[in-house]
Amino acid sequence: MNRQLPFELIYQISALVIALIIVHLVYITLIRPNATAILEVRAEQAAAGEAVDEEQSLYIVLKDYEQESCFILMLWAIAMMGYKGRSAIRERALFQGDIVKVTEGISILPEDTREYTRPIQALPEESQACLLPRALMSALQRFAATRNVQDVSEAVRAVCETESDRLDTELSMVRYIAWAIPSIGFIGTVRGISGALGQAYKAVEGDISGVTASLGVAFNSTFVALVISIVIMFLMHQLQLIQERLVLDTQTYCDQRLLRHLQVRGS
What we know:
By secondary structure, this protein is mostly helical. The chain contains ten helices and no strands. It has one domain (4-261).
């Protein structure tokens, strides 16, 4: 687990840099040039006294820096959740194998635990760090030490609860991003409204183009931020569901494949 932390940190930093580069390239090569071209055409139409095409353009909705920041954070959060989801799916693959091979009708005595811990210790180091092998190893070691099945059950529950708390804590950055994205949208709202108020004197004189442009910044940034926040929250809840099922299935696996076979001599 300790080796995984530096790798995960490097992955998160790399994901942020890559997301920043990709989104910024899309903005400077596609979104902002098209938005500028559309606004120039509308300005020319207004100057010529022609009817201005007021059809909503996606490029104009997305062109501001607040929206760009929201997309960067969205890709970063998705990358982190993808890493967590991949880890959970990889751990679930261990359920398909018989880590502890116990034939139906066979009882495991405290002195037999060494035999059943060997297959777990033979697993690759990366697999041993997963929840299921750790829970099984803890259960077998506790049974050998205490010779009490109830203590074994509590050991499994403690390992699963600790893992559940750890998984929940590791999502704190994603929760922060899900909170930060709407906040960035509101920053755009404040910026747009302050810009509109700064051009209120022009509206009094009859030129409302500056006010409408600033209000467009305000509403577009909030709209995009809220939509992205909804997407992030949906994906985060799906990831939490996968992780919670992993913990619950680990407890069930230990109960059905190990705990019910444990027996103390004379009981």
